[in-house]
Amino acid sequence: MRNALMAGLLAAVACGIVGVYVVVKRIVFISGGIAHASFGGIGIGYYLGINPIIGALVFSLASGLAIGGITRKTRLSADTAIGILWAVGMAVGIIFIYLTPGYAPDLMSYLFGNILTVPMTDIYLMLGLDLVIISIVVIFFKEYLILSFDEEYATAIGMPVEILYFLLLAMIALTVVVLIRVVGMILVIALLTFPAAMARLFTYDMKKMMILSVIFGFLFTLGGLWISYELNLPSGATIILLGGVVLGLAFGVSRLFIKRAAPDKEESTEQ
Amino acid sequence: MNNENEIVKLQNIRVSYGGVPALEDVTISIFRHDFLGIIGPNGGGKSTLLKVLLGLVKPDSGTVSVFGKNPEQARSRIGYVSQRPVFDNNYPVSVWDVAMMGRYGKAGIMRRYSHEDKVAVERALKRVDMFKYKDKQIGRLSGGQQQRVFVARALVSEPELLLLDEPTASIDSTLQAEFYELLGELKRNLTIIMVSHDIGAVSIYVDKIACLNRQLYYHGSREITAEVLEATYKCPVQLITHGPVPHRVLKEH
Questions:
Q1: Is B97 within 8 Å of A143 when comparing Cβ atoms?
Q2: Cβ A149–B93 below 8 Å, yes or no?
């Protein structure tokens, strides 16, 4: 249980911070592609008999860079690149799991997450990845604020846009790995988007949005964990459903609130 | 010839996108304190020309020199206001922070913004009369107000060359007049290149006019002849002359 709380907190930090970039830069499906492609690494991990999470780490980093490379250097569009890597990564995973003799233990927990069974070694890995993510964001906060606002302008003022973009994809890949144990690779994009989308309802300051998003991420994870325990449901899916319901309510309430508080404000958001 | 007042020198620039030519054989020299208006039809290569100056678009052939260097090295001395920047109106950033982006070139990577940067941002926002909105989210402002903030962002970098791409496209006509007056003040210390498809407005405020429709027609003055305009727009157009009172002569057609 203590591991579950730690895992939840570490997941919230990663998805809260990186999720803000994913949401404001509208690269949710790039993140989905990276997450699914990481399944190839899980399969290879089983086959080689190493920790599948290490395989996922290598694969998600590689697929993040590949998506970046394909969209920047070739004429394929981003969604084509995502589609290719998404499916190829999954196929590689399925083949290698098939080839692995015997039965793949806790395969389901990589697919759908199981926060209650996160081993201590993975907690340390998650902590390490969180520290890497936090350092990158602290160092390059100013750069990412400009880059994700207006990429053309960022290039025009001489910012190393490509390197920063690849670094952002790498951060997403690391976040995917942090989240796999908690909600599973299939549900990762939910934790990358819900907390950040929720935070955006309350502030338009990027720093505050990140802090709020981490808090929401932690509340969703904790709340989902508790509900799943009480009702004996799978934890990953419960966390996501709780997030979805809360987010839906929050959107509804905020629309009502905005309409009542300032009718003219509504128009300016529509333009 | 190496004239230090020659800020921009383009020679025989050719740009094409996937085989379709956007600029052909463009040659122009722009000097310190010029206020050059570039007019031409949509798709005539106006934005492309500015992007060549910024090094965002690489010409297929020809040479670009900005402040005697290649465009990438000159970027820190150029302020750029793009045509209606594409951004999300929900993007979490305040007017103040957007203007501060212009100081990035001065602060540099991995450095924090200094007191000096803050002073520059305050001055620029006051100059475009947007300081009172400094804490507002940028997406909550009107198109014209956003445009002013983007001009402030270009100004805070203390550029020597200001590139404006259709700066008045999203501003209504009363604000346009104000905007051009602002440019009139700025041109005393700056070299300005402004791209527009609005011939009338441009001709009143700029000092020199070039016409661009893949090829560039430029005579170093703001007098444009009917022949040049027709060559640019491929159809008879209104001719603008500059008398004591600006007026237009409508050509027979």
A1: no
A2: yes
pLDDT of B83-115, one tens digit each?
Answer: 777 788 889 999 999 999 999 877 766 678 889
CA distance B15 to B25: 9
**Mean local confidence (pLDDT), B57-72:** 90
Share of chain A above pLDDT 70, in %: 95
Find out whether A34 and A87 touch, Cβ atoms under 8 Å: no
The secondary structure element, H or E, covering residue B241 is strand B238-242
HSE of B69 in the Cβ direction (CA atoms, 13 Å)? 11
- In this prediction the pTM is 0.84
Of the candidates A198, A144, A153, the residue with the CA atom closest to the CA atom of residue A172: A144
Mapping DSSP onto H, E and C, the string for A173-187 reads HHHHHHHHHHHCCCC
Asked whether the beta carbons of residue B110 and residue A139 sit closer than 8 angstroms, the reply is: yes
* Whole-number Å distance between alpha carbons of B202 and B50: 17
Give A205→chain B minimum CA distance, Å: 5
Query: Sign of the C-alpha dihedral, residues A212, A218, A224, A227?
Result: negative
Indicate yes or no: CB of B92 within 8 angstroms of CB of A156.
Answer: no
Measured CA to CA, the distance from residue A210 to residue A233 in angstroms comes to 29
| Complex confidence, ipTM | 0.82
Which of A63-77, B150-164, B195-209 is predicted least confidently?
B195-209
Of B72, B98, B107, the CB nearest to A158: B72
Contacts of B90 (CB under 8 A, 6+ apart): A24, A200, A204, A269, B139
A269–B109: do the CB atoms touch at under 8 Å? Answer: no
Interface with A, mutate which of B49, B75, B83, B93 (most A CBs under 10 A)? B93
d(CA B8, CA B14): 16
Average pLDDT over residues A45-63: 93
Question: Closest chain B residue to A150 measured between Cα atoms?
Answer: B87
Cβ pair B104:A209 closer than 8 A: no
- A57 to each of A49, A73, A195, B112, B150, how far by Cα in Å? 15, 24, 23, 32, 40
Of A24, A139, A145, the CB nearest to B97: A145
Residue A262 pLDDT exceeds 70: no
Cα angle value A157/A158/A164 (rounded, 5°): 115
